[in-house]
Amino acid sequence: MxxxxxxxxxxxxxxxHLESVWLFGYGSLIYKADFPYLQRRPAFIRGWQxxxxxxxxxxxxTPEAPGRVATLIExxxxxxxGMAYKVTPDTFDHLDHREKNGYxxxxxxxxxxxxxxxTEGLVYMASSDNDAWLGPASEADIAAHIxxxxxxxxxxxxxxxxxxxxxxxLDEQDxxxxxxxxxxxxxxxxxxxxxx
Length: 196
Ligand code: SIN
Fold this sequence. Notes:
This protein is α+β, with helices and mostly antiparallel strands. It has one domain: Roll (Hypothetical upf0131 protein ytfp), CATH 3.10.490. Helices cover 28% and strands 34% of the residues. The protein contains 6 helices and 7 strands. The protein has helices at 6-12, 28-31, 91-98, 139-148, 156-169, 175-185; strands at residues 21-25, 39-56, 67-87, 103-112, 118-126, 150-151, 154-155. The strands form 2 sheets. Strands 1-3-2-4-5 form a 5-stranded mixed beta barrel. Helix 4 crosses helix 6 (175-185) and helix 5 (156-169) crosses helix 6. The protein is globular. Its EC number is 4.3.2.7. Keywords: Lyase. This is glutathione-specific gamma-glutamylcyclotransferase.
């Protein structure tokens, strides 16, 4: 599958007949809402875990030197918290462009984080069959990769640190993200590293 998913998302899932749609964000969509929304609510999805296994050619890296960004990996019993946004269907023109680097929209069930209740929504997922996929690596290797990567949206480390911060604000304990963050902060020469 090509790593540019704009046409694929439009054709797989026309939304124009709907008044509004819930979108679940688990990566940069938690901390960077650069689109209009009708409502914003903390939520989680079941059966998925967040992993820095997707390559970024267009935001936090380049095609020659991709960065590492988050995607979702299926895992029975897991849960992944993030932020849900109620948006109008035309917002997906912007979102599909922003998430075009390997992410496909998938329909999923969202549960609210702050009260019982659920709704159906869309989530952008990048799976192993997209051309920008990088796959698993140790958390130390992921941190080193992130530390040296940069793209048109800025340093890859900013993505990681902002995501970790946003998860703390949600009171979410994500061991993978926090382990990668810790490994990054311990790298020699990094801003957060002890100055020895
Ligand atoms: C998301 O945030 O939900 C998708 C991945 C990203 O844009 O970081």
